[in-house]
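Hi U.,

Before I forget, here's the chain from the pilot set. I'm dumping it here mostly so it's searchable later in email.
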Amino acid sequence: MTMSNGHYAAINGLQLYHEVHGTGSPLILLHGGLGTIDAIFRILLPALAASHRVIAVELQGHGHTADPGRAMTFEAMADDIAGLIDHLALEKPAIAGFSIGGCVAQQVALRHPQKLGRIVLISAPSATQGWYPEVLAGTAAMDPEQMVGSPWHAAFVNAAPRPQDWARLVRNVGALMNSNYDWTAHLGEIDSPILLVDGDGDSVRQSHMLAMFEVLGGARHDGFAGGRPASQLFFVPGANHLDILDHPLLAPALLRFLG
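Structure:
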């Protein structure tokens, strides 16, 4: 995963950085807050690119994508991804988003329902209260200065065109995590099949993922062994929010769902 695979697209007032890996059916891959492609997807991306054309994106203010100074919202970043789909002339690509990237993926599906194929949401709640309260408190209290020298900071500085924007990114991500959102009731409006993924030690409540699954029709059946819903739920054993992407069970589950 190097800059040799990297491209920029002028979309919605920013230069949206993305990398293209592999061949096959297209799959958009979205990282989590404070992350970069290299830092987040070093194991998962090559596994997916073995059978898909993976378009990995660095969202507003992250990595190579400089922040244009606009408000950081899930809706704005979803519109960026919709613009990239048009820019690359992709025909109903699948999308997989981790954490904040999964929240962006939900908004792409809700705001641009005709643009996506299958959807994978990894550790990504549909409501603010889907996060454990300790997680929200921790992200609200993030201090950019105290995080200098951390792996998150090192990855950002290594990629960012303006390393001095680190403090802005940390503040924006903290505010985004704690913004008041709840799209749960609208998940049933999404026509595409959705795979929900959560770790059994994740930062997202397992009960919340079950509630999302119920809205998607996963709790309904017509008797014993009564059928399989189009959407699916997968709890990854022995995984938390920091290591779920490297878990050996994750890539096979995604590849099976994506077909």
